[in-house]
């Protein structure tokens, strides 16, 4: 599974990171106009959940369970 994510904000972080998760049928692009304001003084982590945006889309519907999505986000945060 390939999960697309982007990191924005000041180099070195600055403050508590903020993770932005999009809603169903959207992508991280939904945060575009808000990104400069939210990134002021903090690191932003934006990600496309599996099956959305630039992330891979599994064919098996059972692969979209909340546990799978949570594991994906954990992998993004660890990266």
Total of DSSP H or I helical runs spanning 4+ residues: 2
Q: Numbering strands along the chain, what is their spatial order in the largest sheet?
A: 1-3-2
Query: Ranges with pLDDT <50 over ≥5 residues?
Result: none
What is the CA-atom radius of gyration, in angstroms? 13 Å
Give the biggest sheet. 3 strands, mixed
**Helix/strand order:** EEHEH
Pairing-aware structural class of the strands and helices?
A: alpha+beta
Strand content: 15-25%
Number of strands: 3
- The dominant shape is elongated
How much helical structure, as a percent, in the residues? 10-25%
Ends distance: 14 Å
Give the overall pLDDT as a whole number.
Answer: 92
> Oligomeric status of the shown chains?
single chain
């Amino acid at each position: 599974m390939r999960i697309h994510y982007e990191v924005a904000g000041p180099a070195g972080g600055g403050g508590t990171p903020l993770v932005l998760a999009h809603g169903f049928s959207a992508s991280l692009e939904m945060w575009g106009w808000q990104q400069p304001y939210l990134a002021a003084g903090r690191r932003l982590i934006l990600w496309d959940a599996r099956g959305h945006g630039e992330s891979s889309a599994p064919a098996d519907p059972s692969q979209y369970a909340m546990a799978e999505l949570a594991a994906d986000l954990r992998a993004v945060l660890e990266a």
